Structure formats: C-alpha cells, structure tokens
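Homework-ish question, so no full write-ups if that breaks the rules, but can someone show me the predicted structure for this set?
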Amino acid sequence: MSEELTDPTKGYLSTRILTVQLKRYDPEKDREPHWQEFKVEARPIDRVLDVLMKVKWDQDDTIGLRKSCGQGICGSDAMRINGQNNLACKMLVQNLKSDKITVEPILGLPVIKDLIVDMKPFFDHYKSIMPFLVNTDPAPTTERLQTPAQRERFDEGTKCILCACCTTACPPFWGNREYVGPAAIVNAHRFIFDSRDQAASERLEILNDAEGVWRCRTVFNCTSACPRGIKVTQLISEVKRALITGVLDMPQEAEVLA
Amino acid sequence: MSTPTYHRFETIIVGSGGAGLMAALHSSKEVGTAVVSKLYPMRSHTGAAAGGIAAALSNIEEDSWENHAYDTIKGGDYVVDQTPVEILCREAVECIYDLEHMGLPFDRTPDGRISQRRFGGHTRPVPGNPSKREPVMRSCHAADRTGHMILQTLYQQCIKQGVTFFDEYHMLDLIMVEGECRGIVAIEIATGRLHVFHAKSVLLATGGFGRMFKVSSNAFALTGDGPAIAYRHGIPVEDMEFYQFHPTGIYRLGVLLTEGCRGDGGIMFNGKGERFMETYAPNMKELASRDVCSRSIYQEVRAGRGVSGKDFVYLDIRPSTINKYKSSPIHRDGLEVDDHFIESRLSESLELSRTYLGIDPLKEPMPIQPTAHYAMGGTPTDFDTRVFRNAAGEVVPGLYAAGETACVSVHGANRLGTNSLVDLVVFGRRAGKAMAQYAKSHDFKEIPKDAAVPTKKMIEGALAKPRTEPWVRIRDELQTVMMDDCGVYRTAEGLANARQSVASLKKRYELTGIQDKGTIFNTGLLEYLELGCLIDLAAATVASAESRKESRGAHSREDFPDRDDVKHFNHTFATKDGDFDVKIDTRAVDVIYIEKDGQQVPKYPLEVRKY
Ligand SMILES: Cc1cc2nc3c(=O)[nH]c(=O)nc-3n(C[C@H](O)[C@H](O)[C@H](O)COP(=O)(O)OP(=O)(O)OC[C@H]3O[C@@H](n4cnc5c(N)ncnc54)[C@H](O)[C@@H]3O)c2cc1C
Ligand code: SF4
Ligand code: SF4
Ligand code: FES
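A: Not a homework solution, just the prediction itself:
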C-alpha cells in the first residue's frame, strides 16, 4: 500500500447542536400524543440512535424506544425520521440536511409509548403467509442440492429483518390494517421462489385473497423505505405475475445439476 | 404492583437467539415448552453474525471432524474440555444438514452443495506433508448474513411447529428451591406486570455480555443477565478472564467487520503502510487467530505505528490490494478478485463501512481497532448443558445453559471464528433434548407462593431510591475501566485498580435510582437492572483475571507473558462471596487419553500456539 491516505477519522470530534422534535405519548400520563423539543450536542458520525439515547440518558429517562444491535440488522428501531421511515441506527448525523430533526413512531400500528408501537398485527401478517420451508419428501442424508442460480433467485427476500419500515410506509396499509402488507409478501416471495419448497401454490392462494397482494397499488413507498435495500415492489410484482400467469419464473430443472 | 401472573410449562427457555431457538425446536417436539425473551426473536444478536458456521463437510476441500477438533483445542490454547469439543465437531456436520433441511439458504458450490470458505485458525494437515498445516475451507456461509439466516430459519421453524413465545418478557430472577431450579420470574415489558413461570427445566440462553466494555461489537441487550442472575444464587461463572477482542471493529463504534474480510484476502496495514502481520504471524498472517491479531494491532499502536499516530490501523479489501498480494484463496485456481466478487461475498461489511464510516471499501481501506466481542466464559455446564453448582462438577437439577451464556468449555481461552454459531446449534439441540428428557422423568415440584417477592422488592427499591447520580455515568465508568485495565492487555496493577473501581461503582449503583417511575415500557428501569448484572460479572471477570498469573489465549498478562502449564492448565470458577468478594476455585481440564505403544498418552498433546 503506497499511496497517501487521508485520515478518515478527522472531524469525528467536532460537534453541532441538534434540535430534536420528539413525538411523545405515555398512556399513563397523556391523553393525546404531543411534541417535545430537546437540544442535544451531536458528532457528525453519531447515529440518530445515539442522539436519541443521549437525550434519554442525559435529559429524560422516560423516553420510550426500542433498540438492540445498533447496526441495522435487528430491526428494532424503525421510526419516522423527518417524515421518512428508517432505522435510527442507520442514519448518521452528518447526513442530516438541517440541524432540526423530527422523530415520531412509524404509522399504522397502535402506539404503546412514545416511539414504541404494537408489532403484533405486523407479525401476525408475517405468520399468515406460511413463512417456513415446506418439503414433505424424506430429507437426504446430506444437503438438498440447489444451483447457485436457484439460490440467487430468492436471495433478495432473505435480507428482510422484519423491521416494518415498508409496511408502515404503505398508504393502503394505513387505510386498512387487514392488508398483509409488503413485508409479508417479501417473505412469501422468499419461499415461493425457493426451488426446495413445495407450498408455493398455497402461499399464492393466501396472497390472492381480498387482503392480499392486490391491495398493493404500486406506490413504491415500501421500496424507498426499506433500510435493507430490498426491491420490495419488484418482489410484489413478481408475485402478482405468478398469480396472473400461473407460472413461476424460476431457473428450470434442465439447468439444474446432473 | 398487582399479584404476578402464573404460568406452568414443562420447560422454559430464556433467550431466543440461535441457542434458545434450537433448544425450543427440540424441546417442544416432546414436551410443553415456552420461550421467554426480552427481545422479539428476530432481534437477537445471533442475527449480526456474518462470517459463517464451521463444520467439516469436505464440500470443497478434504477435511475431517478430527481436524476441526484439533484446531478448536489449539485455538483455545488447550484449556478446552476435549470430550465436548469432539461432540461439537462431530455433531456439527449433521446439524448443518439439519439447518439446510429446515430451509437455511446456504450459498452453493457450482455442483449445488453447501459452499465453504476459509476462516482464521481453521486448518488441515498439508496433503502429502502432514507435519505442516494449511488453511482449510470449513466455514459454511449464506452471503455474509449467516447468523441472520440461522436466526430467521430457526424462528420460521418455531412458527411452523407452533412454539409458544413470550416476546418482550425480561427475566429478572430464577426460582431456586433446595438447590434446584423450578422456574423463573419475568417482567412483561409492555405492562410492567410480573409473571411467574413454573417449570421442570429452565435453559439460560441469554447470550454474551460485551456491553461490559467500552468498544464492543455486541448489541445493547447483551448484558449477561443469565449468568449474573445465576451468580447471585451462588452458581459460579467459569473462565471469565477469557474475553475475546476481535481485531476488526469499526473504529470507535466497535461494529464488527467480519473475519470473512480477511478470509477472502483482506490485508491489515499500519500507519506506515506495512503489512504488520508478517512480523507477528509469518505463516498465517491475517488468518492467525483473533487474540494474536488483536494484540498485534495494540503493539503497532503502542509503537506509534497506528494511522496518523492514532489508535487504529487499516483493513484493506480492495481487489487491487488482494490481487497484488495474491491473498485470496481463488488465486490458487488462477483467478483474480474483482469488485463483483467482493461485493457478492462481503456485501454486509461493505454496507457497514459505507453507512458508518462513509468509506467505500472497494476504493479505500477501512480504519479498524480491536472490539470486545465474545465471552468464552460463562455459566459452567457439562456436555448435556446441565449447569454446575461448583468446581467439582455437581449439577443444579433443572438448570441448563447454552450458547454464549454457557461455558461448556469448547472455546477455552480463545474461540475460533465460526465456532460460536456451531456451538449454538449443537449444544442448543442437546439442551432441548436433555431438558425434555429431564421433564419427562420428573414431576413438577412446588414453588413458594412468594416466589416473585424478591423481584418485586428489587423493582420497588429501584423506583423508590432518589437519583443521586445518573446511572449512565456509572455504566460509562465501568466500561472504560474494564476496557483499559481488563482488556486486551492486563497487569497486576491495572487489575487491582479495576477491582477497586468496580467495587466502588457497585456501591454508587446501589445508592442511585432512576427517573422513570412508570410501568409501561420502562426501559430506563430495565437498563438500570441490566447494569447491575454487568457490574456483578465485571467483578467476577477481574477476580478471575487476577488469579490467572500467566498469558494464555485472550488473557494476556504483561507481568506474566508466558503460558504456565504447570500452574494454570485448568479452568477458573468464580463464585460470589458476600456482597463484593469473589471466591476463586479451579477445575481440571478434560483431557482425552489414547493408547500408543502400550502407554496412555494425551490425544491432543500440548503445543506452543504459533501461527
Ligand atoms: C457482530 C458479531 C458477529 C459474529 N459473527 C460470528 C460468526 O460469523 N460466526 C460465529 O460462529 N459466531 C459469530 N459471532 C458470535 C455469535 O454470533 C454469538 O456468540 C451468538 O450468536 C450468541 O447466540 P446466543 O443464542 O447465545 O445469544 P443471542 O443471539 O445474543 O441471544 C440472546 C437472547 O437472550 C435474550 N435475553 C437476554 N437477557 C434476557 C433476559 N434477562 N430475559 C429474557 N431474555 C433475555 C435476548 O432477548 C436474546 O433473545 C458474532 C458475534 C457478533 C457480535
Ligand atoms: S408498492 Fe404496494 S406495498 Fe409498497 S407501499 Fe406501495 S402499495 Fe404498499
Ligand atoms: S422488506 Fe425491508 S422494510 Fe420491509 S420489513 Fe423487511 S427489511 Fe424491513
Ligand atoms: S438497533 Fe438493530 S436495527 Fe437499529
């Protein structure tokens, strides 16, 4: 390694004062949600999650939010930041456009306290689409074979962390909580297009329901909300196409192993 | 606080990471099982594991479980119990096939089998020259999301099987009667209500406790609740001095860049642009084991060779660098690495670097420093995951531990990469089976009516106390002193300082209360209680480190730089002794003997650990 590299950690210590507008709601105290403002010193490479924790730890311990991994993999801290769904741990202060941020709970699920919503309806939709491999053939003594192409076919959906950013950004879901929502469809796609699975038709039947895939009006909110960069709308379209044509677009047996 | 809600299950599993879910799948096949977890299952930190899971499948290169066992024992610097290691490495293979049958989307070889790659410390004898060893492809992977895929797959199977979950229930106590475990007490986070879970067997699968240190790859939730709560009931913790610092944490943040980065050819450079691992581990270089790499980085930084004189070095995974050094395994097949190859193998690390450092690793190297990563120690168990009550190996009936929480011990003084995930599934499975077996052959025993009273008092105490100082300050001081004085390098003085600091922090902790007095999602209360767990485990860690006057694996004493197999070829058991003190005992290492030329000789003879 010969070329000179600039020290990428320059500027880690500079700080700026942020104004955080936080939507508060504590059912034990408040009749209605209300906004509360906090001022907090933040460094450019702080995560919005760090900023919120700083407010909580230094100023007001009663703030309610979920968190765990701090690195965008556990799906705990989905919230609406400046009007857009994101994981608080995946947004850095240096990428904020202004010194003001508004933070509120994701929409469409009942608020329990402050930024914490009831995830049960979301997980119920997930569970409704049979989110598990179904294969009733006796298992071989080693692995079931699958080509790299077959494996690649359903890769996109396996990235999902069930954070609910997509479903709670979806206008049809806001209007009707019975709609299974994009996250459930992404997870159905993950199995429908897995060459080892045998329950595609049952899952497609479930998604053909009145509250299924046809509620989607292809507004693309979900795709731009997904912190994992999953092409949500495309996966939904592939499921719709499978329902319309009755054909699964998958790498065929002929290309498969000898 | 109203009266607690009562539940009864044959087995209760605390924790829904890889270990807990694997146990739940197996236990629930036979007996009534419930999983109690403070996080939703998919939020567990198993999901963050990127690199892979080890098993000697021989899919790409000829390998054997014996090779895997040899590496694990050597990697652990020999204070490793050999019978459980052999179980681990043998059962690894069928567990991987199990996971695949459950739907786990492993990457594939061109002929459709599970793909494998290299990982630090995993070797085989060189074919044709068995006295030398070379890296072997043993790590099974699913992109660099292997842990996420394991967690996902196990959770999906639990849904399929209709396993009962109590999500966002936080265990606060074990119900111990006459030396037996008969259940747990947990708080329902959403309501603040207490619940008593009466059970025949209880599994602690609460994960690690990296939050004890300032820079850590661990989730906020990893506060060692299981071992700490058991410790307060007089159950020892084993080998706490062995805490692994992973060499490639993102500078300052601690978030991990997987070892797969080096497995696929990534190279570490100091501030002068030198590939310093050539000096410290001429043979294995970047693929030397983690403790070796972490210490090397510390040495470089201390010698003023960190980047810009600061406390970090570079990890370089640019294709141009990898091709220049021919450090990727694909060079052997005459291939070259390109952007697409790196992107497809290490997408998760690229994303982390782009998000948290603003650096595109395809164009620039990444600033890294060692990060507190993995607890080799924990609640001691036998190879059926039954918890030991003392160093003599007597068990606590009804209590089990598995996963990072437990110390079986298969990782000894230093865990090899990809050996934790395999530990979760192998010993998670054994736990589920053993617990179900125990439940079937025993009746429910009575629990006291007031089983939840100590917990209730603890909560009421925390809520009633004045807030003499923010508890967060106590946590920050704890993390700093543990990082500085009980981290990668240790000395008698530093440890004495850590001991006194932890004791005084505990006093301050007990004095202060919290601000939030509410019942619904009182996360302030829970974080405060988690800190109490970390403080107790920190005390045990420091005492264990003081007692081990040698350097071995991850435990590196500057005042005792050598391994001492005469005095210290054993495990450390730390038991709570009064409020602040810790009693230290030792337990012999489980060594397997074989017959050779009419003599009993160790199957895995002690060697100097050199890479
Ligand atoms: C960033 C990172 C990368 C890693 N990469 C690899 C790798 O590539 N290969 C490898 O082999 N290992 C890897 N490891 C190590 C490995 O991932 C962990 O050791 C392992 O996942 C731990 O699993 P577990 O089931 O023991 O605990 P976890 O998955 O941490 O789960 C702990 C569970 O306990 C629950 N819990 C905790 N306290 C309580 C309580 N009081 N009440 C109720 N529930 C509670 C939590 O809710 C959670 O469900 C990595 C670790 C990290 C941090
Ligand atoms: S594309 Fe469909 S699912 Fe996605 S937000 Fe729009 S309507 Fe909802
Ligand atoms: S698809 Fe994306 S946004 Fe939706 S739940 Fe999964 S990870 Fe979250
Ligand atoms: S805290 Fe895990 S995704 Fe943000």
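Now go work out the reasoning yourself. Hint: Chain A has two domains: 3-117, 120-251.
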